[in-house]
Amino acid sequence: MDTTPDDAYLIFDRWKDRESYLRIQLRSSSLMFEGRGVITHLSRDTMELGGESWRFTVPLSDSTFVFSDPREIPVASIREAESARYEFGLAVQLSTGDQLVLVEYKEVGQKAEDSPEDDA
Predict the structure, then answer these.
(1) How do residues 72-106 score in pLDDT, each as one tens digit?
(2) What domain range is 35 assigned to?
């Protein structure tokens, strides 16, 4: 569901204040990045993301935002698995054409590489 920039910034601000661990994917024509980290800095124009050994800043001006909730996934088995791991997420279509996907982990201590099968 499309989200207004104001609503997206409220979510980003919440994640920053709570230091929520996020699954972070950045896709561009020349780069595919996936990691686990937090929002370290946020302004109306930029967002800085960082993990244990990495950090980068993305421009937010003229971006569009799409909210996603794993509880809305139509396939039951996928919905259950994703809902167990993630709260909700935002996809950010950057003005550069790149896409940034941020999804909040449910449990602070959960590792990014954990899979639903690991919980069995």
Answers:
(1) 656 777 667 666 676 778 889 999 999 999 988 88
(2) 2-107
Q: Is residue 113 part of a domain?
A: no
Q: 104 by DSSP, 3-state: which?
A: strand
Render the burial of 1-16: b for 16+ CB within 10 Å, e for the rest. Answer: eebeeeebbebbeebb
Helix (H) or strand (E) holding 48: strand 46-50
Q: Is the residue at 37 inside a domain?
A: yes
Q: Report helix, strand or coil for 14.
A: helix
Q: Is the pTM of this model over 0.90?
A: no
Strand partners, 91: 66, 101
Q: What is the CATH number of the domain that holds 30?
A: 2.30.29
Do 24 and 101 meet the contact criterion of CB atoms below 8 Å apart? yes
Total structural domains within the chain: 1
Query: Does 13 map to a domain?
Result: yes
End-to-end Cα distance, the chain: 32
